[in-house]
Amino acid sequence: MNIHTKRLLLAPLGPQYLMSTHKYSSDLENTKYMMFLPNTDIEETKNFLEMAHVEWQKPNPAFYEFAILLDSQHIGAISIYINEGNTEGELGWIIGKEYWGNGYVLEAAKEIINFAKNELNIKKFIAHCDSENVASYRVMEKLGMKLESKTKGRRNKASEEEREELSYVLELA
């Protein structure tokens, strides 16, 4: 399943993207605000991509991981995880730092929301980020998401420091 946007192609993320995924998912600057990254070795990245590939093969996946492609080059990933009741989806994204500031994540996220709304009948979307990840929460705000809560206790993989997490919500009619 591929989704086309004005500038991007969103395609199922899988093992064919091992090296490009590992490049952005192991970079400390790129993953500074991430809870489950950076990946410390390529096996960790490989295992994640295998899991994503297996999920794509299921009739009703619990999550969808898409590669973000710009002119056939893999630059990042965007996902939606579906809750057990199939009523809400949790959005997440990462993009290589050399592509920051170009609106690619916003463009991809709009299409993922459309896909989830139209194909999966999702009416509520949630997303979380580190309170210092300004670029990420600005994407959430541009998507029409509203800040629902600020909570302490977030721990990002690259740091033992306790952080504040922002939670955003978008409810569709």
Q: Which superfamily, in CATH terms, is the homologous superfamily of the domain at 3-123? A: Gcn5-related N-acetyltransferase (GNAT)
Put simply, the count of helices is 4
Query: Nearest-angstrom radius of gyration?
Result: 15 Å
What's the CATH topology name of the domain at 3-123? Aminopeptidase
- The helical percent reads 25-40%
What is the global morphology? globular
Strand order of the largest sheet: 1-2-3-4-5-6-8-7
Topology (elements, then pairings):
Elements lengths: L2 E2 L3 E5 L5 H8 L16 H15 L6 E8 L2 E10 L5 E8 L8 H17 L3 E7 L3 H9 L3 E10 L6 E10 L2
Parallel strand pairs: 5-6
Antiparallel strand pairs: 1-2, 2-3, 3-4, 4-5, 6-8, 7-8
Helix pairs in contact: 1-2
InterPro entries: Acyl_CoA_acyltransferase (IPR016181), GNAT_dom (IPR000182), N-acetyltransferase (IPR051531)
GO molecular function: acyltransferase activity, transferring groups other than amino-acyl groups
Pfam families: Acetyltransf_3 (PF13302)
Structural notes for this entry:
- By secondary structure, this protein is α+β, with helices and mostly antiparallel strands.
- It has a domain at about 5-125: Aminopeptidase.
- It is about 30% helix and about 35% strand.
- It has four helices and eight strands.
